[in-house]
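This part of the workshop introduces the protein records we will be handling. An example says more than a description, so a record of this kind follows:
>
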Amino acid sequence: MSANILVVEDDSDINDLVSMNLTDMHHTVDSCLNGRIGLEHALQNKYDLIVLDIMLPEIDGLEICSQLRAKGQLTPILMLTARTSEMDRVVGLELGADDYLTKPFGVRELQARVKAMLRRVDMLTQHAEEVDQLRFDQLLIDIQKREVRLDDKKIDLTNTEFDLLLYMARSPGHAFSRNHLLNDVWGYQHSGYEHTVNSHINRLRHKLEAYPSDPKFVLTVWGVGYKFNDSYAS
């Protein structure tokens, strides 16, 4: 799958390395070294993926991510960060990033993440042709429109939140381990990234559940992982 990718990274060596490797993967790459220019590119052009550094001049990556999501721009975002604090990574996910890589990272890992993110979007697009909608009580998942409504009110989800919800909702009652979700939703398997799943589940619950600590739809299966409540399956 050939894709249009935007790389926003102020370290010219890293920018060149990332851009060169993505080009070698037969993708079309636009790149820039400045946050403001990167935001302009992202708003003015259509990309299949954005590779976005957090520390950028003028406008940082977190603000870019926030502005794009606030404008309804759902292009998958892979964040790059030199920070080692888990809180910084969680903030990026909270603002709508789909995944992240911590510097220094290997070229193979970068390529694997990009392949996985693009494959996931392509896979879910193909599945979307099979069924138009899923309904569970007052929760409606419109697969064609990639929209979720609760009590007829639209719920704003990121790409990954939507994909995660849809994946579990397609098999209500089935308990998925965190590694299973990482492998099938994110497209890679790494035991060190289970907290990525936890963060997305927590955000889903805060958006979908009246009482996130006592969820109705997305349930915890202790010792295993998570499942979608089959009590509401039609």
Remarks:
- The radius of gyration is 18 Å.
